[in-house]
Amino acid sequence: MKQPIRIVIIEDSAVVSMLLKAILNNEADMEVVGVAADGREGVRLVSELRPDLITMDIRMPVMDGFEATREIMSSHPTPIVVISSSVDDEELKITFRAIEVGALSVLEKPHGPGNPQFESNRREIVEMVRAMADVKVFRHQRYRGERVGAGVGSSPAPTSSCSCSSMPSSRSPAQPFELVAVGASTGGPQALHALLRNLPADFPLPICVVQHISPGFVGGLIQWLNTDSALRVKMAEQGELLRAGQVYFAQDGKHLQVNRAMDGGLQAGYVLEPESLHRPAVDQLFNSVARECGAMAIGVILTGMGDDGAKGMKRMQERLAMTIAQDEASCVVAGMPRSAVKCGAVKEIVEMDRVGPRLIELTLPMRLIKKSMVFS
């Protein structure tokens, strides 16, 4: 019989701690083996108990969640799921600093059993703990993602780094691209951080992103990514024209789509339908990109649970778009890329540290043409 997942809860609120303990201990395959009320006590408990997984609060006395995560990942690397409040800007900043030093995911603190959202909160926590418990974590950061400079000359040198499928392409190498569309879920914040650090300020395309994340956290994710990216990262607004060198994230609770503007450019749009497991959904973004851009798009599917994005990427591939999946070895959870590969939607499988450089390779002719026009 398989041993239960052994969990340490690090949380300064007795009420939240008791609620988490009840949720987790109610599962036959989970056991809470320790509870700490501050980060320092949590570090000690992890050293003593060597759990399979940790749930981590952020704002705590003595030692906050960022410092506790950093200490744990340097001494006893363990999967960490941050369970945080999303209403406080300072807490959001600390939350994503914890992600940067090794925490795997972030979830909203659960509501009580009388709240209508309790069941969905409970299910999300349980599913995330199951998925994260088997993730192999290391002392070093998973992705290097060294930041590049502003111009063509400072970009990483192109190298052959992808495992390419034998799928034929009818696309002309000289044909320009219009857009990059990216989908990610579990492990996505770290992957996106590495990707955007690798792209220069003169990257010649707009980038649209759907990231599955608990409601209220996407703003904090954008702030964090902006501190370390040469590109401008922002929330996509309804009807906004999409511009080169900017990264547009989907808002909470709406499906982000790309539409053709009256002047022939591209603009962001939102729809509420259809109802789906995820809203925003990667499939909805990819479907719209296939419709509007065809072969002039690049689709990228990164780490994540489930299969969102596979069908949409298949539509992109059928319209001759370039389609790229993160390789399984560098994923936190490989469900989404694996599903896209399985349905024949992927042209190239690329290690995470090479996704950014691969995008630079694909768009280099556009950047060189633009640079020559500036100096002509």
Automatic annotation (TrEMBL):
It is an enzyme of class 3 (hydrolase). Keywords: Chemotaxis, Cytoplasm, Hydrolase, Phosphoprotein. Residues 173-361 form the CheB-type methylesterase domain. GO terms for biological process: chemotaxis. The active site is at 185, 212, 308. Its EC number is 3.1.1.61, 3.5.1.44. InterPro entries: CheB-like, CheB_C, CheY-like_superfamily, Sig_transdc_resp-reg_Me-estase, Sig_transdc_resp-reg_receiver. The modification 4-aspartylphosphate is found at residue 57. Residues 148-168 are annotated as: Disordered. Phosphorylated by CheA. Phosphorylation of the N-terminal regulatory domain activates the methylesterase activity. Belongs to the CheB family. This is Protein-glutamate methylesterase/protein-glutamine glutaminase. The gene is cheB.
